[in-house]
Specification:
The complex is a heterotrimer. Chain B is of the alpha+beta class. Chain B has helices at 3-43, 48-73, 79-89, 96-101, 110-117, 122-149, 152-159, 350-353, 406-426, 433-464, 470-480, 483-495, 510-514, 516-533, 537-555, 562-566, 573-576, 599-615, 617-631, 636-650, 656-667, and strands spanning 182-187, 197-200, 204-208, 212-218, 225-228, 231-234, 236-238, 241-247, 253-259, 262-271, 277-282, 287-289, 295-303, 308-321, 324-336, 341-349, 360-369, 378-380, 384-388. In chain B, strand 17 (360-369) and strand 18 form a beta hairpin. Chain C is an alpha/beta fold.
């Protein structure tokens, strides 16, 4: 009997304790936080909580970043901070879900290749995997091992807004509009190089005009003759020293902003000597015979670049020989590539040689093509480095002890404690045989 | 009847009842599984693989349950357990029955037997048997009744699942959409010898060109009309179903089916019938024959993907030369086939063809397959060319297996001379000096005669093929046609580096270029003659061996295209540059189209399909299938990626990664290889 | 280093070298009328050899049946696919002859079917103007071969470019003379050959 009374006492104590905990929970639910409390919110629910936060004029607000913070909401927090509330933020706590990953730094910027149908190239750096998506669906993912060193991803035209997500950070990437490209003018002697260079550019989507010298007074032309200026052409490609009627205008064209590509020995033409990055040396045959898919230019004959100008930038070499260089002349650019008979790559190369030859020619022309700059996009939705902007706006992340609760928050241990007390009380009664 | 007999009868009854009850329970369980499967299949179409397992699962369950019930029922193995069963129901017996049937007490306690005999337990046994069998019997009867009520097709789908039984499924939805469930039966053309196949609700069908494609569904609202290309075909009713027959076209196409407000797409992918593959095994290579006589064996092997029909050898005889040729053709060795592979064999008699020197005989095998839909496919072998040598070509060294050319005969003679010189040197100690010199000079005479014949071969080659430019070449030759010049040329030939091409370099005279090995032999023979003239056969032997080696090398030389190299005319470019009287006036060049002009359109269509994935997945699948159709003959990798994404969507699974891959395959842009950087790109 | 080297195709089945003077004659003509850097002699390349890809314009002729091996067929298909152009001339001038029929069959198998080339095609104005299409040859006008004057050439097109040009007019005989003998001709009959070369080099 003594034991029975002890058990009954314990049961009454447990019941009282559970009622006390329930009362405490009710009290916490229906009372607001005091002025000295820090209001904690999650970024995923910030849009819903912001009105009450702003109207409550809390002293301190802490935001836990469990999801990407859109720029508009970040700016709203900046406004709250300026109104006198101390705003801090922290990275999300480690959870089982991958969504709760750390706030990894992420920076991404996109550029569009200046060629028809060219890819959008996105340069990205992050400490974690980066997933790209557009308005339609996911696009691609760059692994952390590549992103941490800085990676460049090429992809087709995105549909809608282009975004990148890395952990809890989301970047909205601005993709410049496709520039309207003027035609390319190819000049030189009629021959296989002219035929296949023009073919490669046209097949790649460029509009090409041509002046191919066949005999005195007998040129094969494509396009209507007219002034050589940047309103009509984006690039002039000189295949050899035969410039014909273009010679008189090419320097002015480049200085106005046009692009000039000098192949083989074209740099030695009198009209372009003054603006070429270097002069073309004596022609040399290649040491290798086969067009290797990785380095096909090694099998091309070469006019090595000699006497590089001081303001020219060397871009590529073959052993001790300079093969490609470029320089700026006025508002324009000049690219000199000493390779000769590149058409052999298309004819004698591997299975992908035709497409690769086209891409090579298109890339060369695109690197100097004159194109109007795309208009600056002031859209607030686009930002490529969101974490940097957040730190800039609200300061770095802070670590805050999980002690205080917000106006609607109950301690996590409360409900299990209540249940445990009730369960223990019931078990004890049943054990005694009481009802 | 004694008590023992009564108990034994009761035991048998109980045992039979237990076995029957266990069997009925097992049967009820099996029927229940079939009934459950048919019911589930009515709402959620079970895949054929799962349905094939149902009978096995039902049977296994029935057997397992039967054995378990038997073991639990405790089949009455002996009279004692039967007696115990009776005692449990008649406590008044107080184990009298058990004692009575115990063999140890049999006949010894008659009063116990009498007491046991007074109890009538048979009715209880019968009642127990009825109770034990009633439940399972009712269960079995109920299952059978329900299965009988279900449509036969629905039951057959789980008992005997087969391809094409989709229409037998009892569907939970209303039968208003005749395109909701469709079976496609493919009947390949008869010549292919393939079996018919059925497919349930396919999105695409692959079959041989010309196959009959039968579409069948359950009739519902509206008539089903199929649009293929520009033609429309209406389905015909067949009982409670509709049926429509199409022919597999030769190019991929999409069949659009309409019925009232319902639509469905079916992609037809034709499988072309390949032409037979023919290999001419004999003769194994081209050849030049010295005489147009003899018999030549012809043989060829052929194979086809569906079946061969007939084959023969084709012969074309070309006669003539220069600008005048006549041709005769015939076929021999015709044969018919009845399988997918076969052999052709024939023998031709060159005498019967009437070939003349200079004629050419072209041989090849031609085989046709049994394709009577798109026309018989014709496969041809490589062509072998047999040429009958002219008399002036007997010095050709590219002969196999012709009789040995003059060079070969020279080699035999040179070998004989060598042997004679070696034998003379060997018997030198036994003969006088005069005899040695005499015999040595005799060998020298033969050697000189042989050397002159080699020299004649060299000159004979050049003497006829002068052509238009002959004057210039002939002048050069006239200057050189004397033994000293030939010897000088032979010297140069002999001292040339090993491995030099037999036909020579471009700047050599035709004389040297043509006859390098023979000139080498000529030179060596000259030296050998000199030594033999002075009675030194031993010193002549090395030179004679060298001549023999050179003749051997000439004999085994590759074919030399003498006519091509002898007639090379070098144009004096500088002399004729721009000397033409007429001036050209080139027309304007027209631009080439882009390599893939419809690429942007395909990307737009893919994006449009992506937009439908969440809101209208079936429409998205149709769009992807149509896009895949356009890619089939253009970009197989992208077509495969899109097919995978479409099938994943159709299965109701998450198609995110499949769509990413498809998108990447479709929009990938060939990138320029290194080393061009992006120098010059906007900042 | 020359921009253009004339290439004669050597194939196994027939008399590929039946017009050995055509290369020199066309080289001479190209040098006479244009400034194109041209090699002074032609080359002979086996059809099945990868060397063929060094010469994006190739010439094929003969009298005898044309039968390509599988390697030759594959090489020719790849050659034309990359932008090479083959000029085929029937030295028999006979559309009922074995060269014509067999060449058609082999070209169709390797590259594609031959179709009539309109006489307004750019080929006929690529350097000299031929308003009436391909110029007739003396063999046609003298009634040799099939006794026909063929008004059109045939071609396999790749897009709008000629991939294989086929002639039944026997230009191989028409042009098969030493270039020095041009001085005896009042009209140079090789000018159409210049058109073919210029077309190949510029289109």
């Amino acid at each position: 009997m003594e034991r029975a009374s002890r058990d009954a006492f314990m049961e009454r104590a447990l019941r009282a304790l559970s009622f006390a905990l329930i009362a405490f929970a009710l009290w916490r639910l229906f009372t607001a936080a005091g002025d000295g409390d820090v209001v904690r919110v999650r970024s995923s629910s910030l849009a819903r909580d912001l009105p009450s936060i702003e109207s409550a004029r809390t002293a301190a607000l802490h935001v836990e970043m469990d999801a990407a913070l859109p720029p508009a909401e970040r700016d709203a927090l900046v406004a709250v901070a300026h109104a006198g509330t101390r705003v801090t933020w922290s990275a999300p706590r480690a959870t089982l879900s991958r969504q709760g990953a750390a706030m990894t730094p992420l920076a991404a910027v996109a550029e569009r290749a200046r060629e028809p149908g060219g890819p959008v190239r996105i340069a990205v750096t992050s400490a974690a995997d980066v997933a790209f998506s557009d308005g339609l669906a996911a696009l691609d993912t760059v692994r952390a091992t590549a992103a941490i060193r800085g990676a460049t991803v090429s992809m087709g035209e995105p549909s809608g807004a282009l975004g990148a997500v890395s952990g809890a950070v989301r970047a909205f990437i601005r993709v410049p509009a496709a520039a309207a490209l003027h035609p390319v003018l190819v000049v030189g002697r009629a021959g296989w190089e002219a035929k296949f260079a023009v073919a490669a550019l046209e097949e790649r989507g460029w509009t090409v005009e041509a002046r191919l010298f066949v005999a005195p007074g007998a040129d094969v032309t494509q396009g209507s003759p007219g002034a050589i200026d940047t309103s009509r052409y984006a690039v002039i490609v000189a295949l050899d020293t035969t410039l014909g009627s273009v010679a008189a205008s090419v320097v002015r064209f480049v200085r106005q902003g046009g692009g000039l590509v000098l192949l083989a020995g074209a740099a030695n033409a009198p009209a372009v000597r003054a603006i070429a990055p270097a002069r073309a040396g004596a022609r040399r045959l290649a040491d290798v015979r086969a067009f290797d898919a990785a380095e096909p230019v090694n099998a091309m004959a070469l006019y090595p670049l000699e006497g590089l100008r001081g303001d020219a930038m060397p871009l590529s070499t073959r052993g001790a020989l300079l093969t490609v260089a470029a320089r700026r002349e006025g508002a324009g650019r000049v690219l000199q590539a000493g390779f000769d008979e590149s058409w052999r790559w298309r004819m004698q190369g591997g299975a992908d040689a035709v497409a690769a030859h086209r891409a090579w020619w298109s890339r060369m022309v695109a690197s100097v093509a004159a194109a109007p700059l795309p208009p600056a996009d002031e859209s607030p939705a686009a930002e490529g480095a969101p974490l940097a902007r957040l730190v800039d706006a609200l300061g770095p992340a802070v670590a805050i002890a999980p002690d205080a609760s917000g106006p609607h928050r109950l301690p996590g241990w409360l409900l299990p404690a209540i249940l445990l007390c009730l369960l223990a009380e019931w078990a004890s009664r049943r054990w005694r045989g009481a009802r | 009847m004694t008590i023992l007999e009564r108990v034994e009868r009761a035991r048998r009854t109980l045992r039979a009842t237990a076995i029957a009850a266990a069997a009925l329970r097992g049967l009820a369980a099996a029927l229940g599984i079939l009934l459950l499967s048919a019911t589930v299949d009515a709402f959620v179409s079970l895949p054929a693989g799962a349905r094939r397992l149902v009978p096995f699962v039902a049977a296994a369950t029935a057997i397992a349950l039967f054995l378990r019930r038997l073991s639990r029922a405790g089949v009455r193995a002996d009279a004692g357990s039967a007696a115990l069963w009776i005692e449990a129901r008649f406590p008044s017996l107080r184990y009298a029955l058990v004692t009575a049937v115990d063999p140890r007490y049999e006949g010894r306690v008659p009063e116990i037997e009498r007491a046991a005999a007074q109890v009538s337990f048979e009715p209880a046994v019968r009642r127990a048997a009825r109770r034990a069998l009633t439940g399972p019997s009712i269960a079995v009867a109920a299952c059978v009744l329900v299965l009988l009520v279900l449509p036969a097709g629905a039951v057959a789908r789980v008992i005997r699942p087969a391809a094409g039984d989709a229409l037998s499924r009892v569907r939970a939805e209303s039968r208003t959409n005749p395109l909701a469930s469709m079976v496609v039966r493919v009947s390949p053309p008869a010549y292919a010898g393939l079996r018919d196949e059925s497919f349930d609700n396919p999105a695409s069908v692959r079959a041989l060109v010309g196959s009959a494609i039968t579409l069948e569904g359950v009739a519902g609202d509206g008539q089903v009309v199929a649009t293929l290309g520009g033609s429309r075909t209406s389905a015909s009713p067949s009982g409670d179903r509709w049926r429509l027959v199409l022919a597999m076209p030769s190019a991929p196409a999409a069949v659009r089916l309409h019925a009232a407000a319902h639509e469905r797409l079916l992609v037809l992918e034709p499988v072309p019938d390949s032409a037979p593959v023919v290999v001419l095994t004999a003769p194994a290579r081209d050849s030049i024959l010295r005489k147009p006589s003899g018999r030549i064996r012809l043989s060829a092997t052929a194979s086809d993907d569906y079946g061969l029909a007939s084959g023969a050898f084709e012969l074309i005889v070309s006669s003539g030369g220069g600008e005048n040729f006549t041709f005769k053709s015939r076929t021999i060795g015709a044969a018919t086939f009845a399988s997918r592979s076969g052999e052709l064999a024939a023998t031709i008699s060159l005498d019967s063809i009437g070939l003349q020197p200079g004629d050419m005989l072209h041989l090849r095998a031609i085989v046709r397959d049994r394709n009577d839909v798109t026309g018989p496919g014709t496969g041809t072998s490589d062509t072998r060319t047999l040429r009958i040598a002219r008399a002036d070509e007997y010095d050709s060294v590219a002969v196999d297996p012709s009789p040995p050319p003059e060079a070969e005969k020279n080699a035999l003679s040179q070998r004989m001379l060598l042997m004679m010189a070696q034998a003379l040197e060997k018997k030198r100690p036994q003969i006088s000096h005069a005899t040695l010199v005499g015999e040595s000079r005799s060998i020298a005479l033969d050697q000189t005669r042989l050397r002159k014949r080699v020299g004649e071969i060299v000159f004979t080659r050049l003497g006829e093929d002068t052509g238009e430019q002959g004057d210039a070449v002939q002048n050069r030759l006239d200057q050189q046609v004397n033994p000293d010049s030939v010897l000088a040329a032979a010297d140069r030939a002999a001292s040339a580096a090993a491995g030099t091409a037999l036909e020579g370099d471009h700047d050599e005279t035709p004389l040297l270029a043509l006859n390098r090995p023979l000139l080498e032999a000529y030179n060596a023979m000259w030296s050998a003659s000199g030594e033999l003239e002075v009675g030194e056969p031993g010193k002549a032997v090395p030179f004679m061996k060298k001549a023999l080696d050179a003749l051997q090398a000439a004999r085994s030389a590759e074919r030399i295209y003498l006519r091509g190299s002898t007639r090379a005319v070098v144009v004096d470019i500088d002399r004729v540059r721009l000397q033409g009287k007429d001036k050209g006036a080139p027309g304007a060049r027209t631009p080439r189209p882009a390599a893939d002009p419809s690429r942007d359109d395909r990307i737009r269509r893919f994006d449009a399909a992506l937009r439908l994935v969440r809101t209208a997945p079936s429409a998205a699948v149709d769009s992807l299938l149509l896009l895949r159709l356009d890619l089939l003959d253009r970009d197989m990798a992208a077509a495969r990626a899109i097919e995978t994404a479409a099938n994943t969507l159709r299965g109701g699974h998450d198609a995110t990664s499949a769509l990413i891959r498809a998108r990447r395959a479709l929009t990938s842009v060939p990138s320029a290889p290194a080393p061009l950087t992006s120098w010059g790109s906007p900042p | 280093m020359s921009d253009f080297t004339f290439c004669t195709v050597q194939y196994d089945s027939g008399d590929w070298d039946s017009a050995p003077l055509v290369p020199a004659n066309l080289i001479d003509s190209v040098a006479r009328y244009t400034s194109i850097s041209v090699a002074p002699t032609g080359v002979i390349v086996p059809l099945g050899s990868t060397e063929l890809f060094k010469y994006p314009l190739a010439y094929l002729t003969g009298h005898l049946p044309v039968r390509f091996s599988e390697l030759e067929r594959r090489t020719l298909g790849e050659y034309c696919g990359r932008g090479g152009m083959l000029f085929v001339d029937d030295h028999n001038h006979d559309i009922d002859g074995v060269f014509h029929k067999s060449a058609h069959e082999e070209i169709a198998r390797a590259v594609g079917p031959l179709k009539e080339l309109p006489n307004t095609h750019a080929l006929y104005s690529s350097f000299f103007k031929f308003d009436d299409g391909p110029p007739a040859t003396t063999h046609e006008l003298n009634g040799w071969g099939d006794n026909l004057v063929h008004k059109h050439l045939l071609a396999v097109m790749r897009g709008d470019r000629i991939s294989v040009l086929y002639s039944s007019k026997d230009y191989s005989s028409e042009w098969g003379y030493h270039p020095d003998n041009k001085r005896f001709l009042s009209v140079d009959n090789t000018k159409f050959g210049v058109n073919i070369v210029v077309y190949a080099l510029t289109r």
